[in-house]
Here is the input.
Amino acid sequence: MPSPTTFEELNDSRLGRPNNGLSESELRVSFVLSPRFTILPFAGFLDALRLAADEGDRSRQIYCQWEIVGPTLDPVTSSSGVEVTPWRTFPDIDECDCIVVVGGLLPHSMSHPPETLSFLQEANSADKLIVSLCQGNFTLALAGVLEGRRCATHYRHDKEFRDLFPEIEATTQEILVKSGNIITCPGGTAAIDAAFEIISHRCGQARATKGLADMIVERPRAAFSPPRMPFDELARCGDLRVERAVAMMRQNLSENFSISELADRVGCSASHLSKAFRRFSNASPASVWRSMRLRHAHWRVLNSSHSITEIGYECGFSDSSHFIRWFRKSFGETPNGLRNRMRSSNSEGCVSYPLNFGH
Here is the structure.
């Protein structure tokens, strides 16, 4: 049997659903896989769609439909070596509600042919919803569709992105960034949160929540939720002193006891603790603790109505000027500047729903 070439044929040949036309589906998603794409975000987003698309666990493409498209039908190799073959070449843009670009290893995520970049440019011009997972933001930036927008980037590749695209505002502090018709996320399990957002607003929250429940995901995270941070690796580095110190830092973000006291509590000297931290992170215990506090403060600025002074005290800073100075050094703007800018963006519709889903 020849490969199906349309959503209707896909439903007929693979899923046993009668061909009743595309208009019945509430969400049509086309996946574009980058060379050496990562499996986890692709699978997480896809499974959220699959489980929301039908009743029970029958996996029929009823409420949601999806396909994998590309410039050719040549298999695309993932970062783990698993190959996935596109189901058809790029469709007419009117057949898509949402295009999901799955990134992966660099520089491979930027190794797309002109046809792929043109397809993304056409989708953007048509105001279609475009989603990037993992290093898909590099692909979108290369296509020129991130101009004038914010985007989320993975902390491991933040410097690379900023060096290549200094004119684009990127952040490692949010699991989702919604800017106009584009959603970006740093990958991993954040792809499930991205899928939840989109399914919820297109198919209803009950259907989106069904997918999460079937995937044994307790709850969706808000867009401003902090993603996994570099110091999370210290919590499982294998050195008991460092692991205990990190746990104690997390439990005492508002406390101001010294590194010497912290070292005493984990059973070593301050110098030994500093050497252990530098071995695993190339950073001192004090800088790691301060980074934790500042990242939590960033989240509190965006997700609470507390004053900047209150947030500073909550996060262990002895006075607001000291807090503001470190915040600006870390994030490039003051806490009030960040809060006002994000409120302004929300009021202008730049980072909030409703988005255009291709109606």
Remarks:
- The chain has two domains: 7-214, 230-345.
- DSSP finds 14 helices and eleven strands in the chain.
- Residues 36 and 78 are 4 Å apart (CA to CA).
